[in-house]
Write a structure and sequence with these properties.
binds magnesium ion, about 325 residues, alpha/beta, globular, binds threonylcarbamoyladenylate, about 30% helix
Length: about 325
Amino acid sequence: MEWLRGGNVAARTRAAELLRRGKLVAVPTETVYGLAALAEDESAVRKIFSVKGRPLLDPLIVHLGSFEQVEGFCEVNPVARALAERFWPGPLTLVLPRRADCPIPDLVSAGKPTLGVRIPAHPLLRKLLCESQIPLAAPSANPFGYVSPTRPEHVATSLTNGVDAILDGGPCEHGLESTILNVSAEGEVRLLRPGPLSSEEILRVPDVRSVDSRRSDSSRPDAPGMLKSHYRPRKPVHLFPKGEFSGDSLESEAVVFLKRPTHPRENDFWFSESGQAEEIGRNLFDLLRQLDAHPTFASLRIETPISDTGIWRAIRDRLQRAATPPD
Ligand code: TXA
Ligand code: MG
């Protein structure tokens, strides 16, 4: 595995060269690291599914440098255009109807009539996409169902086979996967996955009348990232509501608070110094991975926010899924 450091033109050029040759490159985004392949190359895309152990029914997001490219792949109605103008580049994925002449293989979108697209804001990836003009299919760079990677080291430790290179862009700014919206041909907006961009912010876009966030049937989710069990450490996770830690815990248990406790005990950890949602989101997956690898602990007891607004919603969503055993 090549480690492409420096965030410079040499690193980007090498990454683009490998991608054009059908190789898999882990790339930084402002949300989490992605495992990228040239979206037009079906056999390269197939490797993504096998390296991740991901079911072929779970569609991938295509990452692009420009809105013109989006228009070449998808039907873009006024609502989708307004969302794109307001939030791209940024942590938003739009699931839009595919154009009849869309050149992206069906495998990328798992045979669906829609395609998930996003223009990411991470400066290094943004430059790579704009310079090379190549569309990149990329899911999060973690084994299917496991905690997403927010640092290049996370990719290296959890995907040990089949990744040809890692483009090092440092730790991710948001640390939570993008907000996913489905925008229908009629302009109806549905939230498929809460993320760094909140429904409140989305509703401020004048063309958006409402955001439907009813959960779809989790046995047949619209976005398989919406499976009840996902983003899970290997160790069991138990949640307790904010401020309600009983004070009792096992010696083999790590207790994780949203904010640094005033008098931390030996087994205490925290997602943030400030208690602010942005900081918690940024550190969440990193701490889950550290504790999962920690030799002392057999299980994790984690404080969950009560608030369901803003980024809190995405934080609660990820913690609840981390605590849900697979069926
Ligand atoms: O922040 C992110 O979105 C990261 C970075 C790398 O961009 N990517 C990411 O990809 O989280 P992934 O594959 O781990 O999660 C994408 C989710 C999946 O649950 C997938 O089912 C859903 O997006 N998705 C993609 N295309 C879709 C489509 N056409 N219809 C419904 N859901 C779709
Ligand atoms: Mg994922």
